[in-house]
What we know:
The protein has about 110 residues and is mainly α.
Amino acid sequence: MISKEEVIKISKLARLKLSEGEVSKMQKDLSEVFNYFNLLKKAKSQSKAAVFSVGIKNKKEKEESIGIKRITREDRADSQLEPVVKKLIEAAPDKKNSHIKVKSIF
C-alpha cells in the first residue's frame, strides 16, 4: 500500500490541499490504481507480431508484418463542386482571391 507521505508528496506536486480523511481515501484509491498497473505489466501481450515488428524501419513492411492494411483515397478536389464553391465565394461579403475573409477570433 502507498504511504501517507507519498500521497502528501503527490498532492503537493498536483497542488492539491487534502484533509487527513482525503489523504486516507487517496492512499487507498492510488494503491488500487498502482495494483492494477502492476497487473497489466504482468499480463502477456495478445499480439506477438507487434513485438517482432519493432526492429523494422520501413513503415510499409511493419504494417504488413502485423497485418495492417491501409484503406485510403487520394486527396483531391471534386470538380463537380467547383460551381457551388464559386457561388459561395461570390456570395460572401468579404473575399480575397478564392478565399472568404472572416474576422479574426484571437
